[in-house]
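Async update (no meeting this week)

Hi team, since we skipped the sync, here's where things stand on the single-chain job. The sequence we agreed to prioritize is pasted below, unchanged from the tracker. I ran it this morning and attached the output directly underneath so nobody has to dig for it. Comments welcome in thread, and please keep replies under the output.
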Amino acid sequence: MLGSRLKFLSRFLAKAFGHRGLTHSGVMLLLAAVVLKGLMGPESLRGPWGALLLGAGTHIAADLPTGGCQLFAPLSRSRLSLWPYVRTGGIGEIMLLVPILCLLGWAGVSGNGSVPGHVPPTAHHARLRRHVLKDISFSS
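Output:
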């Protein structure tokens, strides 16, 4: 989406590094994480920069079944593809995408409990209801 809005940047990167080349490299993603951690400390990976790296990583993972990526660029120019005959928007992508989305949905719903220090939203609602109902008085 960003590439379609910033065509000049997209064309420059594609011409300079190849389509799904260095910009879709797991090695470069790991290097970016190491540099960020070194310059800004480990906490930087838990904020917006970490979210950006996570988004880039999931984008690379999502591109692996649909044509592949040069995952180990610049160390190797070989393209890795997990399912080589899947076309973007085709039936193969749907056959791959639906089970993955179901699995992710199931994992999100049946997680291993809450994160330490995190109060689930239902607890917030229960507290709110309790306080609101306690403060309401009804005329007799």
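Quick observations from my side:
Residues 2-84 form one domain.
The helical segments are 2-5, 7-17, 26-40, 48-63, 91-109, 121-135.
Reply here if anything looks off.
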